[in-house]
Amino acid sequence: MFKVEHDRDITQLTTIKVPARAQYFAILKKRADIYSALEYAKQHGLDIYILGGGSNVVFTKKIKGLVLKNEIKGIEILKKTKSKVIVRASSGENWSRFVSYTIDQGFYGLENLFLIYGTVGAAPVQNIGAYGVELKDVFLSLRAIDLRTGKEKEFALEACQFAYRESVFKHKLKGRFFITDVTFKLDIKPRFKLDYGPIKAKLKERGIKKPNLKQIVDIISEIRNSKLPNPYQMPNAGSFFKNPEVGFSVYKKLLKKYPDMPAFKLEKKVKIPAAWLIEQAGFKGKKYGKVAMYEKQALILTNNGGSAAEVLALVKRVKKKVKFLFGLDLEEEVNII
Ligand code: EPU
């Protein structure tokens, strides 16, 4: 049943667990609840904030308006041919549970994105990615409700304007739509993406030439678990910053000064790992009170009971030093609200 609570603690609904409160709060269990929430917000003149898995957000102040926790679940196979399958998942579905489902069915395409925290609905907003695969590579379309008009709209690939950790839902349409479900185009036959260095290394180490789905899933799990802290044990929000992209001339200048600097060449730009910049700046494993940059992956900010102010102070410190040393501006990947 749709029920609105007043002044609700939402700390535990985020993976970084910085203390946070919502002025109004409701859990959505079914599609009809979205319309109840729209009606409630309209009646009371409230803004709406949609919360998925809370794995990519830091709340730094009490959230004004109505915070909606999306728990609308469901997975449906829409079409299956000899080579492809079209699967639709509701936006409140847990991402990893959905990926597990597709793997159990023997569908290929999402294996590299296994174990990412968050929900299906949040995945397209920032075009989640890992180990050489991005959501956009398997995305067919999504459906969303316009929060202003209550009307449903379908977005095909182009309309989402996906880019590296970006989509139209983070820019022009920010806060405008409630994504209700996402449809994926997956493969029935293997089509692995195995270019990421550590995947190649593990396959070689194990003497696997023609991997199967289970072997890839095992390898992805192992790589993730060796680098990324489990937020249930050590609160965090995944990569805190994006990897900065620079032009070739900037890259060459930096390389002269730092010949060991890792980099990934793109078509027109070069991506420099933020983790490397942060490590070079001396922050890897360094604690500042209750917050720290993680000892095994410098791009992860961990929070052991700290406040928003402590998180923001560390973010500022990291950005300042990286700017000073490399002349590069780190941009938050996490949403700071
Ligand atoms: N590196 C360091 N120090 C570290 C860690 C890494 O110098 O402490 C350097 C190494 O040279 C390494 C490179 O950084 O080769 C890249 O590191 P890694 O492969 O761990 O990936 P990343 O660029 O730090 C990105 C995504 C991750 C995703 C991995 C794997 C972003 C912002 N992050 O991290 O996504 O899992 O690639 O594909 O693009 C997330 O978005 O929350 C996330 C975890």
Topology:
Blueprint: E1 5-9, E2 21-28, H1 31-44, E3 48-51, E4 57-58, E5 63-70, E6 75-80, E7 84-90, H2 95-104, E8 129-130, E9 133-134, E10 139-146, E11 152-156, H3 157-160, E12 177-187, H4 197-205, H5 213-227, E13 236-239, E14 245-246, H6 248-257, E15 264-265, E16 270-271, H7 274-280, E17 287-288, E18 291-293, E19 300-303, H8 308-326, E20 335-336
Parallel strand pairs: 2-5, 3-5, 4-20
Antiparallel strand pairs: 1-2, 6-7, 7-12, 8-9, 10-11, 10-12, 13-19, 14-16, 15-16, 17-18, 18-19
Helix pairs in contact: 4-5
Bound molecules: uridine-diphosphate-2(N-acetylglucosaminyl) butyric acid (EPU).
Uridine-diphosphate-2(N-acetylglucosaminyl) butyric acid binds next to β13 and α7.
